[in-house]
Write a structure and sequence with these properties.
The complex is a heterodimer. By secondary structure, chain A is mainly alpha-helical. Chain A is built from 22 helices and six strands. Chain B has 27 helices and two strands. Chain B has a two-stranded antiparallel ribbon. In chain B, helix 13 runs antiparallel to helix 18. Chain B is elongated and about 150 Å long. Classes of the chains: A mainly alpha, B mainly alpha. Chains A and B meet through helix 7, helix 13, helix 15, helix 18 and helix 20 of A and helix 5, helix 6 and helix 26 of B.
């Protein structure tokens, strides 16, 4: 199945359309810089349409994961091909895009969140052109990560996001923006170095035969890396359960765990969130965190299933720590946005716990949790942003009684808050329940301990809700306006998705069904 | 017919939901109260129809319709399970809900969120009906939580008040603690049975050899009931929940939602082992006793009723736990009726008190509490209908003969006696009978202080009036329904009534029951029943006598008793120090933990990150210095040295031939000496 336009595949369009938009913005005259917003909005709208096409046309029966036949909307071209020195071998990097059930939910999420984020950026006045070109660049990086199947290409996209993110936080952020931006950049870069090392180690260990020339050569193809037969005898990562494979897995895991973020690598997140402008917080929590989880299921688990099984208990333990630790930290926060940031830490712990279940229920729960957390947290950050735009403060203690002052807004807040605390009927519940159900089979006591997070989440969410929205309104906020149409346009679609998936999660589940099963089978065999 | 009944049940379930959604969006544009009440009236009529057909034509059948809701990653089949308990609950819930709607029309008039209130009532009713009709534990858990949230919304209806906001939060969180236990139980069951439908679980019970697993699973599920039915040790949320509007207390916190825990135990009854049942019975008995002792010293009319509710729920649990399947459920039904009557009666009193206080607002009545019974008195004359209906419901609650409560309470006491006798748990009947006495004491204390005697303020009593008709109708209906005749034609026994015919112990009791348990669970115990009846009636009379001695004839001064046993008095009035204990150890403890963790996060973990950054800064500083002083120093030194050398050597570049010749000669001489 292939959809092309101008002989270019749909995934390429999806990924590189923002770059086209960026070029357009470059050539905008300074006077018309406001047009940049519309260009960006146009790009994300088209992406949303493309993602919808993908959603409709996606074949739910194909598994993908490690089989090239199962990948859909494939685009494979040789990209870099150099005959290098003998010991290095022929360098061959493919432009290899393709998607399966693991990536489609993420693509949908990215398209939705990007669209929302553009709307959230509408009030940006400081160097509009710069902001939106960086935004579009970031967008390319995000989609690239989710469609790339060549490790080298993946890594390029992975790194590509860093730069715009750094500037978006560092220039358009809050008071301590430089500190936060540098911290984010260095932290992620540290993870990238680990990923890079593993990538190179894999490259030198994996050999495939070129289909055309019959020549033996190394490859960055992820799918080839998932096949143990492709590992050259006596190469570094050859075999199963070897010392080096464990080390490589740990390095890869840390690289992704930083993005996730997993305790104890999470402290960049609260700072980055607090300092970032609303739209960037939305992207950060909605999409960037998911890349960590996506990296685990797309790369770390299928390539190193043996090591994943070996370390499954520590991983689950980290998930448990994230859940409880994040919730307790959230409870102590005085800054509304920081509280939401820590709640992300807690909720991403459920993803890790679900993945560590290494069974279908847990993995599906984890994948769904990534999607749901993306929508719910995006909503929460928009909610904080709406308040901050009006009051220029985020201190919880400054608020109270907003429910009466801003009824429409508060109704949406209720949905987001209750979804976040896992109320049945809203999407967060299903994914949490599945993650726990799956994890319970593998890690009984850890899961039981983790369920305390359910109570803690309810406690800090309701407490925050009470402090900000219930009670009486401080006089200084007497002139607060209820939310505008633009803000409604951000929150209402998210609320609809949250409610819909809470009642009928099947459309999302059937996307992942076959792929997750295949992934679980791969891990089980080892 | 089966299909029609199931379809109708689904309509009953969905109608209040529609009312909720409709009122949320358009509530302010129409008369919300009329809309909501008529919707609920329709569901009530439908429920009556369903139940009648069910009992008359298919008394033994179980109707079941299920469809698969989620196929992946676990198959979750959900559907409607319509059996006799469900049919009865349908009627009870829609009936009380209807009466509460009716009552609220007047009671809540002029409220700031009038339409919102009615929409939430609809939401609650739907969630509750969901619990009743669902056929599996997963969706039951979902509705369970939804009931929790609707209770949250309704308790916090007046959220501007800090106490109301606090109470709603507390209710939800305490409930959630129980729910987590229930969820763990669900996971455990799913792990072992790979299904969550009641049918599926019960049919494969025999395959489980490890009965301790069933005990654990059953008790974990029971945790949910402990939360929702306010059982020891999670009973603390219910008294606070009285912050909600009084009709809400009647509907949710007396008649229906709190009974959900009892209903859950009923639903999972076949998987409860004798060990689990014993624990349930103890929890019930202890709860009943604790709550009754606290009710004795309360002064707030709603709080007294709240503790009495906890106590009665304890009875139901005790009944179920001591294998009195029919008895426990029967008490649920009768209690729902008379307790709703009592709460609505209290609502009527509070309404009148409130209006009288407002009428006198210009004087100095700011410190009058509309809910404190000691500010009432003499209401009988002013509010006769409220009084008589209240009295009738009180009779039922305390178990005076000819009332419904008498019938159901005796059944429970009989079960407790039989069970205690057979299993040597003598504490169970002991606690149960002492609670009977306490119950009649605190209820008649309430009646005497609030309704009889004289009002403490002559002026205010002038402004107290009987409530309007729309509020009185529900009271009368509920009071009438507290008569025995609706449940059994024999005022002293239910053994041949319609109720015991349709509600029977599930036949599929698990094999773990010892034969003697099975025997005493199903055989009638005429003698023990008579004994229970006589003793409990004696205890009731004793309680009433004490209440009259203390508060009517004032032969004994309650203040003196309180002073003499000060420790005990404060122990009861402080609710056995549960709240204080939880506040210090759970709430404060968690907050302290959260502060510590947050400190740890900022100082230690982030400290490490920043420390690393600083360390590298320092290293780079040192290496920078190294670079500029040593590395660059060497380079500069070499340059300097060469320069100096050059300067030195330049001295001999004089350009004079004589100097060069002299140097050459000196050189030759040196060479000559060296290579001689």
């Amino acid at each position: 199945m292939q959809f092309t336009f101008l002989n270019i595949g749909i995934l390429t369009w999806l990924t590189f359309l923002p770059l086209v938009g960026m070029l357009c913005i470059f050539f905008l005259p300074q006077k018309k810089s406001q047009l940049a917003k519309w260009i960006t909005l146009g790009c994300t709208t088209i992406q949303l349409l493309l993602a919808t096409i993908i959603y409709i046309k996606f074949d739910r029966t194909l598994a993908g994961v490690n089989s090239i036949e199962g990948m859909q909307f494939k685009e494979i071209f040789p990209w870099i091909s150099i005959n290098s020195t003998e010991w290095f071998g022929k360098i061959s990097i493919q432009y290899f895009l393709g998607i399966d059930g693991l990536s489609v939910p993420m693509i949908l999420l990215t398209a939705i969140i990007s669209f929302i984020a553009v709307l959230a950026s509408w009030k940006i006045e400081k160097s509009v052109k710069g902001y939106f070109s960086l935004f579009l660049l970031l967008n390319t990086g995000m989609f690239g990560v989710f469609v790339a199947l060549d490790f080298f290409l993946f890594f390029i996209f992975w790194e590509l996001m860093l730069l715009p993110m750094y500037f978006l936080i560092g220039v358009w952020g809050g008071e301590r923006r430089e500190y936060a931006a540098v911290k984010f950049f260095l932290y992620t870069l540290f993870g990238s170095v680990l990923i890079l090392l593993v990538m190179l180690a894999l490259y030198f260990s994996v050999t495939v035969t070129d289909a055309i020339t019959g020549e033996k050569m190394h490859t960055f193809n992820m799918l080839a890396m998932m096949n143990p037969q492709n590992f050259e005898n006596n190469s570094l990562l050859f075999g199963l359960h070897t010392y080096w494979r464990y080390i490589a897995f740990i390095a890869l895991f840390i690289g992704f765990a930083i993005k996730l973020p997993l305790f104890p690598f999470h402290t960049w997140l609260p700072d980055a969130h607090v300092e970032a402008p609303t739209a960037i917080s939305v992207i950060l929590a909605g999409i960037l965190l998911k890349m960590g989880g996506y990296g685990l299921v797309r790369i770390a688990l299928p390539i190193f299933p043996d090591a994943a099984i070996h370390y499954v208990y520590p991983i689950a333990f980290l998930g448990f720590i994230n859940i409880v630790y994040g919730a307790l930290c959230a409870m102590a926060q005085k800054d509304f946005k920081k509280l939401i940031a820590y709640s992300s830490v807690s909720h991403m712990g459920i993803v890790v716990l679900g993945i560590a279940a290494l069974n279908t229920q847990g993995m599906v729960g984890a994948m769904l949790q990534m999607f749901n957390h993306g929508t719910i947290t995006a909503m929460l950050f928009v909610i904080v942003g709406v308040l901050y735009d009006r009051t220029h403060t985020r201190q919880i203690s400054e608020f109270g009684g907003l429910m009466n002052k801003m009824p429409k807004y508060s109704a949406l807040v209720v949905i987001a808050f209750f979804a976040s605390l896992g109320l049945p009927g809203l999407s967060g519940f299903i994914s949490e329940a599945f993650s726990f159900l799956g994890a319970f089979q593998t890690h009984q006591w850890l899961t039981i301990a983790s369920t305390s997070g359910i109570v803690l989440t309810a406690a800090y969410m309701l407490w925050t809700f009470q402090r900000v929205y219930l009670g009486t309104l401080p006089e200084k906020w007497n002139s607060l306006q209820d939310i505008s149409k633009r803000e409604l346009l951000m929150l209402v679609p998210l609320a609809i998705i949250i409610i819909f998936l809470g009642i009928y999660p099947t459309p999302m589940l059937e996307l992942m069904n076959t792929s997750v099963n295949a992934l679980v089978e791969m891990v089980k065999v080892k | 017919m089966q299909k029609t009944l199931l379809q109708l049940s689904f309509i009953v379930f969905i109608l209040p939901l529609c009312s909720f959604l409709f009122l949320i969006f358009f509530g302010k544009k129409l008369r919300a109260e009329i809309f909501a009440t008529s919707v609920i009236a329709v569901t009530f009529l439908l429920s009556i129809f369903i139940a009648t057909i069910k009992f008359l034509s298919f008394p033994q059948e179980t109707f079941h319709y299920s469809f698969s809701w989620i196929n992946f990653p676990i198959k979750i089949e959900t559907g409607i399970l319509l059996d006799n308990p469900a049919a009865i609950m349908l009627v009870i819930v829609t009936f009380i809900s209807f009466l509460v709607h009716l009552f609220s029309i007047e009671y809540m008039k002029g409220d700031v969120r009038y339409s919102r209130y009615f929409s939430y009532l609809g939401f609650f009713t739907t969630s509750m009906l969901g619990i009743i009709l669902t056929d599996n534990l997963f969706t039951m858990y979902m509705f369970w939580e939804l009931v929790g949230i609707s209770s949250y919304l309704l308790i916090g209806h007046w959220y501007e008040k800090t106490s109301a906001a606090n109470a709603s939060k507390k209710a939800f969180i305490v409930n959630r603690i129980g729910d987590v236990g229930m969820f763990i139980g669900i996971m455990l069951l799913w792990n072992n049975f790979h299904t969550l439908t009641f049918e599926g679980i019960f049919s494969s019970l025999n395959t489980i050899e490890n009965t301790s697993l069933l005990t654990v699973a059953g008790l974990l599920l029971f945790c949910g009931a402990i939360g929702k039915s306010a059982q020891f040790p999670l009973q603390v949320w219910l008294p606070d929940a009285m912050e909600g509007p009084t009709p809400v207390s009647a509907l949710i916190h007396a008649a229906t939602m709190v009974a959900a825990g009892v209903y859950l135990v009923l639903r999972i009854f076949p998987l409860l082992t004798i060990e689990a049942l014993t624990v349930i019975a103890y929890i019930g008995a202890v709860t009943a006793f604790i709550a009754a002792t606290i009710a004795v010293v309360q002064t707030d009319i709603k709080k007294i009723l709240a503790y009495s509710t906890i106590s009665q729920l304890g009875y139901m649990m005790l009944g179920l736990g001591s294998l009195g399947y029919t008895a426990g459920f029967f008490h649920l039904v009768t209690h729902a009726i008379f307790k709703a009557g009592l709460f609505l009666g209290a609502g009527s009193v509070i309404y009148a008190m409130h209006n009288s206080i407002q009428a006198l607002h210009h004087t100095k009545n700011h410190d009058v509490d509309a809910q404190n019974i000691f500010f009432m008195g003499g209401l009988k004359k002013k509010m006769p209908i409220t009084f008589w209906t209240f009295l009738m419901c009180t009779f039922a609650l305390t178990g005076i003969p000819l009332t419904s409560g008498f019938l159901s309470k005796d059944e429970i006491l009989t079960s407790a006696l039989v069970f205690g006798n057979h299993t040597n748990n003598f504490l169970l009947p002991l606690l149960a009978f002492s609670t009977v006495m306490l119950t009649s004491f605190y209820m008649f204390r309430l009646i005497i202080v609030a309704f009889l005697g004289n009002h403490i303020d002559e002026k205010r009593i002038e402004h107290i009036h009987e409530s309007p008709k729309v509020m009185l109708v529900p009271l009368i209906v509920l009071a009438v329904l507290s008569f025995f005749v609706f449940y059994s034609f024999n005022p002293f026994s239910v053994s041949n009534s319609w109720f015991t015919k349709i509600i029977t112990l599930p036949r599929s009791l698990i094999s773990t029951y010892l034969p003697e348990h099975r025997k005493f669970a199903v055989t009638p115990h005429q003698q023990i029943h008579t004994l229970a009846m006589v003793v409990s009636f004696g205890a009731t009379l004793l309680g009433i006598l004490f209440a009259f001695l203390l508060y009517y004839w004032k032969k004994i001064s309650p203040q003196k008793i309180a002073q003499k046993s000060r420790l005990l008095y404060s122990f009861f009035s402080q609710q056995w120090y549960f709240d204080r204990f939880y506040n210090i150890f759970v709430v404060k403890g968690t907050l302290a933990f959260s502060k510590i963790f947050s400190w740890f996060d900022v100082k230690v973990i982030d400290g490490c990150v920043n420390g690393t950054a600083v360390l590298f800064q320092k290293i780079s500083f040192v290496s920078g210095k190294f670079d500029s002083i040593i590395v660059d120093g060497i380079v500069n030194f070499i340059a300097y040295f060469s320069g100096m050398l050059g300067l030195g050597l330049r001295k001999i570049q004089t350009g004079k031939v004589q100097t060069y010749i002299a140097l050459v000669i000196v050189g030759i001489l040196i060479l000559f000496f060296v290579y001689k």
